Amino acid sequence: MLKEGSAAPDFTLMGSDGKEHRLSDFRGREVVLYFYPRDDTPGCTIEAKEFNRSLSDIEKRGAIVIGVSSDGLESHQRFRKKYSLEFLLLSDPVSKVIKLYNAYGDKGIFGMGTLRKTFIIDKKGRISKIFERVRPLGHSGEVLSCLS
Predict the structure, then answer these.
(1) Please, how many CA atoms are within 13 Å of residue 20, restricted to the half-sphere of its CB?
(2) Domain 29-146 belongs in CATH node 3.40.309.10
(3) Partner residues linked to 33 by β-bridges
(4) What 3-state class would DSSP assign to 139?
(5) What is the mean pLDDT of residues 56-76?
(6) Is 44 part of the annotated catalytic residue set?
(7) What is the pTM of this model?
(8) Which terminus of the chain is less hemmed in, N or C, by CB atoms within 10 Å?
(9) What is the pLDDT of residue 108?
(10) Backbone angles phi, psi at 144, to 5 degrees
């Protein structure tokens, strides 16, 4: 079970930019790592657009935003293009990282799948904040208030 203060597990996933990315590549910067169920669905679109609107404020604090879902790279690329998203989306088609970060579980009537969950990872690679049961509307503001 991951807790605030624990080391963020490292991983490697393919990104919407067509490149492989390791979490450890971002050491030295705060990382907003958010997990979401599906590209281009109502709640996920609200959340992504909010992060996009807040991106310059997040980056002014030296942080970056990375979204993770089980969608494929083509889906991520379409989603980014449709909404002019300026941050990286990572593809986890077998939900390995999603499960590693305890962002997979029972979604009630929707069955098992990716849960909406956000982690702030500090410059040293430790989890400084975990947001459970995220509500998309207003979430980027919550995250921004927790960045150093």
Answers:
(1) 2
(2) no
(3) 66, 119
(4) helix
(5) 97
(6) yes
(7) 0.96
(8) N
(9) 77
(10) -55, -40
Measured CA to CA, the distance from residue 93 to residue 99 in angstroms comes to: 11
Q: Which residue in 136, 147, 126 sits closest to 41, CA to CA? A: 136
* C-beta separation of 68 from 93 below 8 A: no
Instruction: For 105-122, write each residue's pLDDT tens digit.
Output: 988 777 889 999 999 999
Q: Which one of 13, 23, 32, 44 is the catalytic residue?
A: 44
What does the pLDDT look like over 44-64, one tens digit per residue? 999 999 999 999 999 999 999
Cα 1 vs. chain centroid, distance in angstroms?
A: 18
How does residue 20 score in pLDDT terms, banded at 50, 70 and 90? very high
Q: How many CB atoms lie within 10 A of CB 129?
A: 17
The one-letter code for the residue type at 21 is: H
Instruction: Summarize the chain as % helix, strand, coil (round to 5).
Output: 35, 30, 40
Site of tokens 């909010």:
50
